[in-house]
Design goal:
Distance between the termini: 31 Å
Radius of gyration: 15 Å
Number of helices: 2
Structural class: mainly alpha
Number of strands: 0
Shape: rod-shaped
Order of helices and strands: HH
Helix content: 55-70%
Length: 56
């Protein structure tokens, strides 16, 4: 995932064949995936910070 995460994911996505107009349910599904991605990214940041603090 690159660039403006939600902008890219919410408006255009390969999963939806580059359609310009998505249904409400499709947008909700994409936002749920984006939220999961953000949570995983945050967890990764926390783990990396923890490891770096142990090294110092």
């Amino acid at each position: 995932m690159k660039g403006n995460m939600c902008g890219d994911m919410c408006e255009r996505n390969d999963e939806y064949n580059g359609r310009n107009f998505l249904t409400k349910d499709e947008k909700i599904e994409m936002l749920e995936k984006y939220k999961k991605w953000l949570n995983n990214e945050s967890k990764g940041v926390e783990e990396t910070m923890h490891k770096l603090k142990k090294i110092s």
